[in-house]
Amino acid sequence: MSVEAIRIVGARQNNLKNLSLDLPLHELIVITGVSGSGKSSLAFDTLYAEGQRRYVESFSAYARQFLERMDKPQVERVEGIPPAIAIDQSNPIKNSRSTVGTMTELTDHIRLLFAKIGQLHCQQCGRPVQRSHASTIVTSLLQQAAGQAVMIGFPYQRTAQQTPEAIRLELQRLGFTRLLVAEQVVRLDAEAPLPDAGTPIEVLVDRIVVQAERRARLLDSLEQGLRFGQGLVVVHFPDGLQQKFSQHLHCPECNITYRDPVPNLFSFNSPLTGPSNPGVAPARATNAACSWPFAPDTVFPPMCPLPGSRPSSGRP
């Protein structure tokens, strides 16, 4: 049975007189009263103290010596209380953008959590972006293409200064003999001319039937493709479809490379979230800050002057 309320029974902390009450969970609760009525005794000295005390006791004896210890409040029992956070009014908010998370430093831990276990998705196609290794690609192929004859290749990055003959000689020196051009196999030792500079070239590493018995050969071919393809390999299936895999945080379909997530990437005032970083909405840079376009009628009430309008006081 789930607990829907925090039950306090027999609270006698400070000036509380055997107080018993239920505080519903997932609700905003305001405690009011005249000075000396026991508001702080109930909220801080009883409720927060018991929640913090139980939370600290859940750690090992070694960890507890580094944490703040709180005395058990004078209360008969407290039921259904989760770990508690207290913000004292004596700590004024010095920044208009301060929140409960920033004041309690919870956002530091949340940013670290997102950076470590967050799942990155491509900002353009929405597909998950993750690193692929030769062993994981083999496992994936054995699951989805067992018994099919596939072709394994990698895109060849040629420069504008390279002539077709120089490309042919370099690939032959590396041990490759075939290319994939428009899904057609072209042999390097043939007299057929190589495509123009604007046509992408894909080097064919291997043609193989996906079988568990050929796992070692599959692994070796994929490792070669990832090595010479600068971390990118392409697998062609008999039905004409192809699947791209990347060793980096790179979306092969959209050709977008993402940086490794770090905690600062999830901070609202970090320069890492500027307009030059993928995954962030386009912004207009002004000096060291960024401004995002918005619809004024959805932000300002109808009676408020819009930004840039003349002040009602008549001052210039």
Secondary structure elements and pairings:
Layout: E1 5-11, E2 19-24, H1 39-57, H2 61-64, E3 75-79, H3 100-103, H4 106-117, H5 134-144, E4 149-156, H6 164-173, E5 178-181, E6 184-187, E7 201-209, H7 215-228, E8 232-236, E9 242-246, E10 250-251, E11 256-257, E12 284-286, E13 289-291
Antiparallel strand pairs: 1-2, 1-3, 4-7, 4-8, 5-6, 5-7, 8-9, 10-11, 12-13
Helix pairs in contact: 5-7
Spatial sequence of strands, sheet with the most strands:
6-5-7-4-8-9
- Report the CATH topology name of the domain at 134-257: Ribulose 1,5 Bisphosphate Carboxylase/Oxygenase
Structural class: alpha+beta
Q: Count of DSSP E strands?
A: 13
Terminal CA distance: 65 Å
Strand composition percent? 15-25%
Uncertain residue segments: 274-290, 312-316
Structure report:
This protein is α+β, with helices and mostly antiparallel strands and 316 residues long. Among the domains are: 75 residues, no CATH class; 124 residues, 2-Layer Sandwich (Ribulose 1,5 Bisphosphate Carboxylase/Oxygenase). It is built from seven helices and 13 strands. A six-stranded antiparallel sheet has the order 6-5-7-4-8-9. Strands 2-1-3 form a three-stranded antiparallel sheet, covered by helices on one side. Strands 10-11 form a two-stranded antiparallel ribbon. The longest helix has 19 residues.
Question: Any descriptors?
Answer:
316 residues; alpha+beta; Ribulose 1,5 Bisphosphate Carboxylase/Oxygenase; six-stranded antiparallel sheet; three-stranded antiparallel sheet; 7 helices; 13 strands; elongated; disordered C terminus
